[in-house]
Amino acid sequence: MALFSKLPNRIAGSSCICNLARCSRSQNKANLNRAFANNANSTPLLKTPLYDLHLAHGASMHPFAGFSMPITYETQSIVESNKWVRSQAGLFDVSHMVQHIFTGKDVTAFLERITPTDVRELAPYSSVYSMFLNNNGGIVDDIIITKHTDDKYYIVTNAACRAGDLAFLEEQKKLHGLSDISHEILEEWGLIALQGPRAAEALQGLTDFDLTQLKFGNVGLVPVKGSKYWVSRSGYTGEDGFEISIPNEETLGFTERLLGESHSVVKLAGLAVRDALRLEAGLCLYGQDLDETTTPIQASLSWVVGKRRRLEGGFNGYEVIAEELKNGTSRRRVGFLSDGPPAREGSKIYEETSVKLIGVVTSGLPSPTVGRNIAMGYIEKSFMKRGTEVLFDIRSRKRPGTVAKMPFVPTKYYR
């Protein structure tokens, strides 16, 4: 606990999931094997602190961002797991995510150069969704920033972006001439996400800390049976929930207590259902829905640009983003609903006469909660109005769809 004692945190998954309503468990497994195969290479896979626990609970483990990660569990289908998280609570191992600590008198200024967030005015012990931006306003990675003090920040970044993020951060420190910055990656810390309407009930059973004090985006140092863990009221499912940073050696014990003392409220959940949950909530997956050629405005995330930042600028890509805020963009991220075969990542989108190509799907799957196919993608500005009829190119056949409001499932954040 030495590192955190000095202080007074996206997700992973794949949209390539088979038709949940129609595939058998064996078909699901075969599809998932193919979906995650492109993450495999000859490098030995890293293991999270919960690796053995996953195996003991019948997890199907697959390579993801250099780690062996649980994608599904034999006790629940993806549909069953989805419904469980929406009605009870699911526990996700996200220890592969990269946890950073930044300290120093130049840290706030540095973060205000590389993100569009009003970091300076962020309240202590609160978190905000943000992104690293390149000089063209493109998204290098989407992140969570937690402010402890003006010179201490905790940031969570995507595992698959680790090498690129580290190179970006080093380059930007040199470019902006900011020297009083210390940066450490919490290699010896695990990260779990407890999500669902009964998440607070389950976690409250392990602590005397009043969790109602933590609203969405708040962070607290929560005592749990002799230890103290940093707990953020956040997550990437659209449900109420918590992300908990724990020393590796304590992660297994904490998780077992949570599973054992929750009286069956909490069940383990894999990355496949996490992907379905985040898409239902209209949340982006970096590398599919976001990349370095896409700006926050094109991604329909203009709200991440703070009001003060819009006026003062001073961050990477400001000129591009200010122009897009004023005059709009040629393409935007929108949601879609459809029936029949689902439109998935890479499906081309045509206007309703099937002549003009107007966009592409970036994520898509059958939604267990909505009961229809859902997707998100980028289309030309003139076709983004809700209710606009479009056609998806699915296996060389045109299938109808409709531009729809996101999120597809109402969020239930505790505010």
TrEMBL record:
GO molecular function, one term: transaminase activity
Protein's UniProt keywords contain Ribosomal protein: no
Domain Aminomethyltransferase C-terminal: 331-409
Subcellular location(s) per record: Mitochondrion
Keywords of this entry: Aminotransferase, Mitochondrion, Transferase, Transit peptide
One GO-annotated biological process of the protein: one-carbon metabolic process
Annotated InterPro entries: GcvT (IPR006223), GcvT/YgfZ/DmdA (IPR028896), GcvT/YgfZ_C (IPR029043), GcvT_C (IPR013977), GCVT_N (IPR006222), TrmE/GcvT-like (IPR027266)
Catalytic activity, EC: 2.1.2.10
GO cellular component: glycine cleavage complex; mitochondrion
Keyword Transmembrane helix: no
Function: The glycine cleavage system catalyzes the degradation of glycine.
Subunit details: The glycine cleavage system is composed of four proteins: P, T, L and H.
Assigned protein family: Belongs to the GcvT family.
Protein name, per record: Aminomethyltransferase
Taxonomic source organism: Lipomyces starkeyi NRRL Y-11557
